[in-house]
Amino acid sequence: MILILRSGATQEQIDHVIEHVEALGFAAHLSQGTHRTIVGIIGDEERLRHAPLKAIAGVADVLPVLPPYKLASREAHPQDSLVDVSGVAVGDGHLAMIAGPCSVEEPDRMDRIAEAVRASGANIFRGGAFKPRTSPYAFQGLGEDGLKILQQVGKKHAMPVVTEVTDPRNVAMVAEYADMLQIGARNMQNFVLLTEVGKSQRPVLLKRGMSATVNDLLMSAEYVLSQGNPRVILCERGVKGFDNATRNLFDVASVALVQQLSHLPIIVDPSHATGRPELIPACARAGLAAGADGVHVEVHDCPEVAKSDGPQALLPAQYDELMGQLRGVAELLNKKLPDSQLSRT
Ligand code: PEP
Ligand code: MN
């Protein structure tokens, strides 16, 4: 920790700062320049993280040396993490290709969509059974019945499943059916929920909040990691922008930045980031090119009757074409994409 003192700090204040630091059990290293005095605090920074050092008279600023997300940081863990989602490796060169409808719908439709996306090379199937909706009158999801459908369809098509959990009271129940728990953008800072999924043994797909900074995202990941659950995959799904031409603002730079700051895998979700099917392929390619560890896409076989997010869904044939393009990008980057079971001409 570094303390920068005010330009007019008196000798009495400087002496007090040093006494205070030493009384806390740390060594202080004084550095006096012509205009400013700096005090370096030597010792375990974590023990001082929440101390009100800025309140000491004469202190202008407090600069931590280490990031506050010590478990999520690259310093703590220089190697890329690899997360095992029921047999599907994600991170460290392995790509998660997550696809499926926004909401879990009737079994036959789920079966058709799963079959199609699996054939195109998806390796994780998605669908929300608990939907966080802006309107209380909009479709809220099928609940536990939806979880049963999702689990059954995932098993039939040999794909692990990911689904959102919105309520700390439902974590144990959702974890019974799902291979990975999704924390949605609206709940990224629901700290009680983060603590609960941290206690569960399931991998967690943590989506960036729509107004969250990269630091906020990594601090939320820290909540999960600090509970002893190391299996966290981050997801860039766009942040609020000023231009409603796209649903959100796809922050592709955050992917590259997160990979500098953290060892955790990060995937992109161009469906929620753009809200426009015609923009999804370009943003998916850009995400992979920026270093993302996977792509999350909403797919529906009849978007005009979808229970939620129909206007942004790709048709199975469009998803198949996109997967062909992503295979090319992955090859350039020497990353592993699951094989397609469709013959492509
Ligand atoms: C979803 O995945 O369907 C969803 C609601 O996503 P987000 O939390 O990113 O809006
Ligand atoms: Mn959705």
Describe this structure as you would to a colleague.
The protein has helices spanning 11-23, 107-120, 144-156, 171-177, 191-199, 214-225, 252-261, 270-274, 280-289, 316-332; strands spanning 2-5, 27-32, 37-42, 59-63, 83-85, 88-90, 96-100, 124-126, 161-164, 180-183, 204-207, 232-236, 266-268, 294-298. The chain has 345 residues and is of the alpha/beta class. The strands form 3 sheets. An 8-stranded parallel beta sheet has the order 13-12-11-10-9-8-7-14. A 4-stranded antiparallel beta sheet has the order 2-3-1-4, with helices on one face. Helix 2 packs parallel to helix 10 (316-332), helix 5 (191-199) packs across helix 6 and helix 9 packs parallel to helix 10 (316-332). The protein is elongated, with a radius of gyration of 23 Å. The mean pLDDT is 96. Bound molecules: phosphoenolpyruvate (PEP) and manganese (II) ion. The site of phosphoenolpyruvate has 8 residues, from loops. Residues 102, 128, 184-186, 207, 237, 272 line the site of phosphoenolpyruvate (PEP).
